[in-house]
Specification:
The structure is a homodimer of 452-residue chains. The first copy, chain A, contains 20 helices and no strands. The longest helix of chain A has 36 residues. Chain A has 452 residues and is an all-alpha fold. The interface between A and B is large, with 106 and 107 residues.
Chain lengths: 452, 452
């Protein structure tokens, strides 16, 4: 009966155990409110809300520099970490729902090229150029791991910026999304190869093939089988309960399930969530009832001219067609900012104090940006810079690679700190760059702003 | 950088640490989907959805009897426990939003009488009758703690049943809600008195007064000051962003904040969440924009007869007036079932195996039910049985009291098990009894079914 009791404990005697839970409630309230307040402020200055959330996190995470340590425990709280994880899963599920699989397939070739160059170019720059130049005297293994770290892509930031600004329909957005999925697989392969080289001195072909096989199986299996199942399960579930809540549950549960499955296959959970979003096409969901509001309004239109009644009804239906997406919005408002604030909180400004580390960090950052901008060249004209910058953020994926390198003893503390600075800079630089590039690209008429 | 990294780890090397997170995703997906599937099935048999969720929990929690132990770790997972806690907080916030403070004040006298008798009657029955009769040879202190355990009320189950069946507007529902709030304060007082008697041999008047003072201060302060603040903060927040998301954030953040504050004042967090729901009256929220849909439909009605246009517009506005309540629904669909499934999972069927324990348990259960039914007599005719049964569930609050008794050494393992059985029976008996009573009471016309 353990945890439940502690949670609900109104007893002073149990208050000590339950203190963390209480703090988490306060903390979630603060993030939720701060994120909603920052969003319009950031937009007033032309920034996407995500930048406000990241900077809020940087401030909160570094208050200990001013002697305020109250937030330090939050950054390490497993409950908050899980809620952040749910946040980025919901975000990628939303992005997947707003992306049509056919549109993604149409840019498949370019996305593959971008992914391939986006992994190869930074890796080679890291191993052959940045490593020997910036870290003379370190071994080849160190350069290999640096290259692997530079090859990573984290799609959360870019996806959020495109979504905040209502530009997920741009080809550039689809290319970045597609490339990020392929990148996650390529990143796993490169990490396996590099780790094998460092530990065993050779490459285990079987292990590499196994990683490729299970990732491919996951992607093809989840989307292919999922689409077949979703078509029928939607009809079957609508028969049990044709309300919007069943539809919502089906979409969200699929997102959580595939996030788990991706994780189990060794991929990032967000890849699974994105795949779940791609599964559901409006066609599958037609069996779910037009919401209460249509049924309520329809009789009122009986005496109106037929043309008016038709137009009002179709506007109502149009508005409610994406109801399952709208139902995810509150979940997103609640969870997504937790992820970005927590990401900002991981930024330790102490790292910027060491000028030697900083010099190496800036060098690596240039390599990181140049490598991904090179990948952007494969995106076709008009999208080159957008795609290039869209691939720049390394986020948590780059850090995980660096952690592995540190664990294997090929990256020392100073290099790890430099990688952290690189991750921070690529993460914080990207939103303003994307906004500048998007502002100069033509805005389109059907420009919903779901994040606004 | 700890927890975030582990969460997002695509590395096989980190998979062991991250396994729990993956499992939690799978588990949430299962609960979400199962709850949505159980709800219509339960309704087909005339049961509220909550009974389905409780029974699902009982089954999952006792699969270990069949040798299936996979769910045992879930019942003890702190992340899942926190999400369950969020669930019951969101539920009470929703119930608070659907309750007008004026309506609650109107039944204030009867609610106070019900609360007073609802604490006094079971306590006295426990101390003077059930204790000496069922537990001969135990000391006076044991009877005192048994009485305190019987005095508890847990409003989650009853609130959920009334809400599932769309009957929150009934006077009986308001009386139970009001009495439960007062009960939480009285329960704290009684526990403090009993604990003092057991440990120090006397009652610490200062401590009792302090508990009464801070609980009263919390209730009056949060609702009184909160209503003043909410009126102005709503106008101020609407000026920054008059979208529905700001409104939603304000309501949910207030709920989480007051849940934390209640917890800090020694009360149950759900009391704070309920108070937050009571704060917001539709009047305060008028500054928030009528949603996009109204703006979209209005021009289409230009050529329609004025009367039709007016009626459609007012229907649309009426539908969207409670938009902030609707925005909480997805959060509720996601979190609330986790609480009830987890509550069901706390039921350990092993306890029913010992016939001596079972006999004592049944005796205590009768005392528990009779004591609360006596309180129902104060509710005024027409509501007596509904209010009485509405007060019956002890839920987690009764268990917390019993835990304290066990901790102080005045309740042995057998008596604790008997109390657990009493809590189980009062929790599981209540939904069917309430449904039977509600079916025989007159249904009203304006009968929304928010939980359906």
């Amino acid at each position: 009966m353990g945890p439940l009791l502690l949670l609900l404990a109104p007893l002073p005697a149990l208050a000590a155990d339950a203190g963390g839970i209480g703090e988490n409630l306060l903390w979630l309230a603060l993030i939720l409110m701060a994120a909603r307040l920052f969003a319009p402020l950031a937009q007033r200055f032309g920034f996407p809300a995500v930048l406000g959330e990241l900077l809020l996190g940087v401030v909160l995470g570094n208050l200990s520099l001013l002697g305020i340590g109250v937030f330090d425990s939050i950054a390490r709280d497993p409950v908050i970490a899980f809620i952040a994880e749910l946040g980025v899963i919901v975000l990628l599920l939303q992005i997947g729902l707003e992306t049509r699989l056919a549109d993604l397939a149409r840019v498949g070739g370019r996305a593959s090229a971008v992914a391939a160059v986006g992994v190869a170019a930074p890796f080679l720059i890291g191993v052959l150029l940045a490593g020997p130049l910036l870290l003379p005297g370190h071994g080849q293994n160190t350069y290999l791991f640096l290259g692997a770290t530079l090859a990573a892509t984290s799609v959360g930031i870019t996806g959020r910026v495109f979504r905040d600004l209502g530009r997920l329909h741009l080809p550039a957005a689809r290319i970045v999304l597609g490339a990020a999925v392929i990148d996650d697989v390529l990143g796993l392969v490169i990490l396996a190869v590099v780790s094998n080289l460092v530990t065993a001195g050779n490459v285990s072909t079987a292990e590499v093939l196994w990683i490729i096989a299970k990732s491919t199986l996951f992607l093809i299996g989840s989307i292919g089988i999922g689409r077949l199942v979703a078509r029928h399960s939607s009809r079957w579930l609508a028969r049990i309960d044709h309300g919007q809540s069943m539809l919502f549950a089906q979409v969200l549960a699929t997102g959580l399930f595939l996030a788990w499955l991706a994780h189990a296959a060794g991929l990032a959970p967000i890849i699974g969530a994105f795949a779940a979003g791609l599964l559901f096409e409006p066609l599958f969901l037609k069996d779910f009832r037009t919401p209460r509001i249509v049924a309520e309004i329809e009789p009122l239109l009986a005496t109106a001219p037929v043309s008016v009644a038709e137009r009002v009804k179709s506007a109502l239906l149009g508005h409610t067609r994406h109801q399952h997406e709208h139902m995810l919005e509150p979940i997103g408002y609640f969870f997504v900012p937790v992820f970005f604030v927590l990401t900002g909180m991981q930024v330790d400004l102490h790292v910027f104090a060491d000028s030697a580390v900083l010099a190496v960090a800036l060098g690596i950052t240039v390599a990181a940006v140049v490598g991904k901008l090179a990948a952007g060249l494969c995106a076709g004209k008009g999208s080159r810079w957008l795609v290039g910058w869209g691939m720049v953020p390394r986020g948590e994926v780059g850090l995980i690679f660096a952690m592995a390198g540190k664990h294997l003893g090929v990256m020392d503390e100073a290099l790890f700190s430099a990688v952290v600075v690189m991750v921070i800079l690529t993460t914080l630089l990207t939103p303003p760059m994307l906004i500048r590039l998007l502002a100069s690209s033509e805005p389109t008429a059907d420009d919903p702003k779901p994040g606004a």
